[in-house]
Amino acid sequence: xxxxxxxxxxxxxxxxxxxxxLANEMRRRGHHVAILYLTGxxxxxxxxxxxxxxxxxxxxxxxxxxxxxxxxxxxxLKVFSPQVVHGNMVHANIFVRLLRLHCHIPLLISxxxxxxxxxxxxxxxxxxxxxxxxINTNVSREATTYFIQEKAxxxxxxxxxxxxxxxxxxxxxxxxxxxxxxxxxxxxNEFLFLNVARLTPAKDxxxxxxxxxxxxxxxxxxxxxxxxxxxxxxxxxxKVKELKLINNVIFAGAHIHIEDYYSAxxxxxxxxxxxxxxxxxxxxxxxxxxxxxxxxGGCAEVVDDYEYVVPTHDPFLLADKMxxxxxxxxxxxxxxxxxxxxxAKRFDINSIVKEWEDLYLGYLQ
Length: 365
Prior knowledge:
single chain, alpha/beta, Rossmann fold, 2 domains, seven-stranded parallel beta sheet, 14 helices, globular, Glyco_trans_4-like_N, glycosyltransferase
């Protein structure tokens, strides 16, 4: 098959990571693959298979930019002649639906990666352009059900397909653990919480910092490593100063080789206000880590244990769970991590890619 993945951008994030991973795996299975991205920089240059065509459409806020990007994409599709065009994220999904008005596309799939897409207008646009899509998917059952209930997705052509991860890549590695801890001056006997997320309102890092502050009351020497970058960085750094956590909280910035950081941690914690799937939870589970999360989007589906899921916007309940993990014996944490590793097998990229491949072929046949 000739497959084109279209995505809003290729910055560091869950939707971008899974799209690149899916493209790579499809190429390894012998398909001809291309990735078109609407805007921004490509952070995945070293991660994308060299046989995959990658092209920026150069979309900007200029009103003529959309027309130019549409014509550029149309010309590309004319030459590449795909059987499948698979959109990812709201802007790219609307873009490829509009593209279908003047391009031949045998199979058009729209994949949303979140329940909250920040605005009723976007849901309405999904609804009014739904007739242009053959198959709609979201990354959790809760999100798919919500989109159907809101009439953003047509019921009869919508389904849930979970995100997938490379279980081998995210396996625990003691050498990487030591390397990262040395890099950030964290001793091997210091308890390290890890959070991997963009510094945006959706991830609610203030909730995490308040919970961490409370957790420090029983163990003042614990550390929190936050991996990610975003618009709220300065605000969050000020919050750390306000909470007197400068010696406990480390902002590491964004990193492409995120697997190293999971190996360094003792527990992963996600404090999001809203999520789609919570890919980082599956990655942390594959790394044998205990995980804590808020009940945002599909996070509870990933963790599959409500003992370690708390309501959103409740730092005190989150702190209670964080304290529980800290005071556990190493043996208890290891057992919990091993259980999570087994659960992570549900998201093995090989199984997820097979599901997508069957979906493509099943429709085209």
